[in-house]
Amino acid sequence: xxxxxxxxxxxxxxxxxxNYVKRHQDLPFSLAxxxxxxxQLRQAATGPVLTIENGDYLQGxxxxxxxxxxxxxxxxxxxxxxxxxxxAGIIGNHEFNYGREYLSSAIKTLNYPVLxxxxxxxxxxxxxxxxxxxxxxxxxxxxxxxxxxYIPHWEGPAHIxxxxxxxxxxxxxxxxxxxxxxxxxxxxxxxxxFERDLTTGQPTERLTGENVGYExxxxxxIDALVTGHQHREIAxxxxxxxxxxxxxxxxxxxxxxxxxxxxxxxxxxxxxxxxAALAPTGDQPADAAVVNSVAAVQTATExxxxxxxxxxxxxxxxxxxxxxxxxxxxxxxxxxxVQMAATGTDIAGTALFNNEGTGxxxxxxxxxxxxxxxxxxxxxxxxxxxxxxxxALEQVAEFFSLDDGQLVVTPRFLKPKPQLYNYDMxxxxxxxxxxxxxxxxxxxxxxxxxxxVVAAGTYEVTMNSYRAAGGGNFAMFSPAKIVRxxxxxxxxxxxxxxxxxxxITASANHNFTIQA
Length: 516
Hints:
Residues 310-478 form the 5'-Nucleotidase C-terminal domain. The protein is an alpha/beta fold.
């Protein structure tokens, strides 16, 4: 008998095949296309099938934002997930972005159980059960739910108050032996990724505990490991355990198969029989049930996105995102000025989060705002020393390298997971990053109001809540250095600013220089 384990992960509310840059798109991803793929795989399977939603579904798309921020009705989005036919779901880190209350409300609307063993409220799991045993065709399958424990490094304290985020590996070590006694097959569904090369076991990132997938494969008793979080496309057998990670926005479905044999006590997995694969969804039609489940809110979202907010005098478009990171764009300067206005500082930093944003055309709509500023960030003001500020810029400078004298993005910011959001550009200071110099010695000019930044001096700097808490491994930042916050979503702050300033002038003072 063959057991098939199917999974999606990091769909981020992209229920339909659009990134909302414009109406009527048919892009090669979405929950709706994943549902069509899942249905085909379920129909083709020759034995029992288990289907898992592996987290990060509440935040990301414009539809998800509209459901959470505008209507505060999670069912407007979760209705689509209920149409898929999942057996179980997992908590992702982005599930906390709209607050614990919204997350709890969303979970109540789902028609499948949510599993999470390592996030506790007191001594009890905070969201659903730690595991569940499913019986399919006489096979008992235990699914253990785990979520990256690194969430307190990113999420605002108000969203996670009263919660404990226990170590993922230690939690698995406690539960897996118990589940082996209860079930024929043990599956770990982990909203987290891999910290090491899958072949050599060598670290591929700082071992902070954010990703521990490789370490999980070394725990005896795990038959299959479903992962996510990094948005990577992975299908492999690691330390004898088949693993999958099905990309981003529903671009793939993870497929793990295990060969089972009957025994006197039930079933057991044939040693070495596990395989892993990914099934791309892009060529599939969008499933009608999923499309229909969000038809009304999709129309409302599109109409809301087209609502006008303001006008630009000049050019605030981004045609080359790589160039916009080397030479300041008017869009980046505008975002930093909105941040400073919202918090009363004269220094701010922001990133161009991905390569899909196009900046602002002459007329700005809400669509332009939410498709350029894609995260539900709030703002924090940090009181930093000059040494902190310089250290942050030195880390920013690591984004670039030289290849035969040509300026390129350092490979670790592109693979295994793109980290374009970890390159910040600042306003309110004048600085030069000389990429020809050794790492740690690349800040060759750093001025504030025309004077050198003093290492022992103090400076108030605005940044998004993720970065302010040290997100992206910026160790010089921390919640302890936050002196005040603006709890409005950045998207709302941009819209508010445009209502107050309905015509803005595109400008870029080119206060930073990248030398190569």
